[in-house]
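Hi support team,

I've been running sequence recovery on a batch of backbones for a student project. Most finish fine, but this one hangs at about 90% for roughly twenty minutes before it completes. I'm not sure whether the input is malformed or the queue is just slow. I've pasted the structure tokens below so you can try to reproduce it. Let me know if you need the job ID as well.

Thanks,
M.K.
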């Protein structure tokens, strides 16, 4: 950025110097402005006229565009068709009706000059000066546009970087929240003496409509909701003495009774209907007083009861 600013300053200084440089065309077009002031111009000596009884020596200095101005001199004869930088005071010749420079100093320039240069008009000189100015102005505008575009993309990059960081932060928070919900749920095990069940569930599981109410045993009168674990056979709630780890534990009713098998039964939700399936081969499961054989499944209707060992549930919808 500092380099670009320095470039702009340099171009501005160049434009300033260019605009302040005095040319033969400037003097001829604005003679009153430079009258009796010290001027410094460059040009090629095209003719030398020595002094006589009525006038001093002078030479004609021609610009690159073919315009000429008379330079009165008391110094040695300049070399014809050689380029010089002339410094002197500008005066107005009342008799001739033209301006001339009274030479103070002369500096030769190492430039080869064509003896018959093309002499454009003053109008052409004005057009060329305008062209140079427009080119310089275009360079300045281009530099400014580059700075604006650079700042725009830099700001855009910062916005994208900040958005990416925020997105990653949000994903981390969401992941952490979900992990907390799955691995560290609140439990209701202290509310029951004979069963253990989790009251919160992951978002991948849905609560089954209704609830189970305990109608016998030490927890008689207490009720709880159940959520099914999604499987190809339906949303399944397992019942048994075993302790299950992972997500399935949220769809598991753990019974703390010796008369219950490790894998006792399942409650299955299929297309809006509930079924009870007996799994155990030693401790049978009863639905409304009827014992189910191993792998036998019956529909669970509202107010139906499920008995496993010494614990009996009633399905309340």
């Amino acid at each position: 950025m500092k380099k670009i600013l320095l470039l702009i300053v340099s171009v501005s200084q160049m434009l300033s110097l260019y605009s302040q440089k005095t040319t033969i065309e400037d003097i001829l077009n604005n003679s009153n402005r430079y009258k009796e002031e010290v001027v410094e111009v460059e040009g090629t000596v095209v003719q030398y006229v020595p002094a006589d009884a009525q006038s001093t020596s002078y030479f004609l200095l021609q610009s690159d565009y073919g315009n000429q101005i008379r330079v009165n001199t008391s110094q040695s004869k300049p070399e014809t068709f050689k380029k010089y930088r002339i410094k002197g005071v500008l005066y107005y010749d009342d008799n001739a009706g033209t301006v001339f420079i009274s030479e103070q100093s002369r500096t030769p320039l190492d430039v080869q000059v064509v003896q018959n240069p093309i002499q454009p008009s003053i109008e052409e000189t004005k057009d060329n000066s305008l062209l140079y100015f427009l080119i310089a102005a275009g360079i300045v505008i281009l530099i400014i546009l580059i700075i604006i575009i650079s700042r725009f993309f830099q700001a855009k990059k910062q916005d994208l970087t900040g958005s990416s960081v925020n997105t990653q932060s949000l994903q981390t928070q969401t992941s952490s929240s979900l992990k907390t919900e799955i691995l560290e749920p609140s439990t209701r095990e202290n509310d029951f003496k004979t069963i253990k069940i989790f009251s919160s569930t992951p978002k991948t599981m849905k609560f089954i409509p209704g609830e189970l109410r305990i109608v016998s045993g030490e927890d008689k009168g207490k009720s709880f909701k159940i959520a099914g674990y999604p499987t190809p056979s339906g949303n399944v709630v397992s019942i048994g003495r075993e302790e299950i780890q992972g997500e399935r534990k949220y769809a598991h009713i753990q019974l703390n009774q010796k008369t219950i098998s490790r894998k006792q039964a399942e409650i299955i939700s299929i297309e809006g209907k509930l079924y009870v399936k007996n799994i155990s081969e030693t401790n049978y499961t009863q639905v409304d007083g009827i014992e189910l054989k191993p792998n036998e499944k019956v529909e669970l209707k509202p107010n139906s009861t499920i008995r496993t060992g010494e614990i009996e549930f009633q399905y309340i919808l």
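--
Follow-up from support: It reproduced on our side and the slowdown came from queue contention, not your input. Residues 2-138 form a domain with the OB fold (Dihydrolipoamide Acetyltransferase, E2P) fold (CATH 2.40.50.200). No action needed from you.
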